[in-house]
Design a protein that fits this description.
- 24% of the residues lie in helices and 21% in strands.
- The mean pLDDT is 89.
- Helix 3 links the parallel strand 1 and strand 2.
- It has four helices and eleven strands; from the N terminus they run ααβαβββββββαβββ.
- The strands form three sheets. The protein has a seven-stranded mixed sheet.
- The longest helix has 19 residues.
- It has a single domain, classed as NagB/RpiA/CoA transferase-like (Rossmann fold, 3-Layer(aba) Sandwich).
- It is of the alpha/beta class.
Length: 183
């Protein structure tokens, strides 16, 4: 991992965690309003459970039918797979993930909502650094279909430019509490 990414990731995570509870709740509310419009179209939607200052998704989104959460795949080359929201267990990285349900790979979903550490207006994203989403999305180009990829972030997480590596996968859109970028 490049030192530029490490430094930027640390700065942005600190900034994201410094937001007050009311700022976090307001961001969640505003993003939730935007996501309700998308979720009305149905389809299989992958969400996440917020941690470390990430945008929290409203329970109305998490509880809709055909909503999935990421699970760490036992094969490290795959990164993540997705299961329907339900009873959770702690993953090996101490992140809650569904305990049961039919596994789905990224290409089998219609929409994936990704938490971001940072982003730029070109659709480049900076994640937590584990590469789980990058590996899960790596083979989308050779699949018969691909999901729409939308990153969710606070406005303060925008960067003029996010350093890119060859394996980084660009987003189709980015939502912040005040703006939406379609790419």
């Amino acid at each position: 991992m490049s030192s530029d990414k490490k430094i930027l990731r640390k700065q942005l995570r600190t900034l994201r965690r410094s937001l007050s509870r009311s700022q976090q709740e307001r961001a969640s509310f505003l993003i939730g309003r935007k996501l309700r419009l998308l979720s009305r179209h149905g389809g299989k939607i992958a969400c996440y459970l917020a941690r470390d200052g990430e945008i929290a998704l409203p329970h109305t989104i998490l509880k809709t039918q055909n909503t999935f959460l990421p699970c760490i795949h036992p094969n490290p080359n795959i990164g993540l797979y997705f299961r329907t929201v339900g009873k959770t267990r702690m993953s090996r990285l101490k992140i809650p993930e569904p305990a049961r349900g039919q596994p789905h790979l990224a290409w089998q979903l219609d929409l994936i909502l990704l938490p971001l550490v940072g982003f730029d207006q070109h659709g480049h994203r900076l994640g937590m650094g584990g590469g789980f989403y990058d590996r899960a999305l790596a083979d989308l180009a050779r699949r018969p279909r691909r999901p729409m990829l939308i990153g969710l972030a606070h406005d303060c997480q925008e960067c003029p430019s996010v350093p890119q590596d060859p394996w980084d996968h660009p987003l189709d859109g980015i939502m912040t509490p005040t703006r939406t970028f379609w790419l």
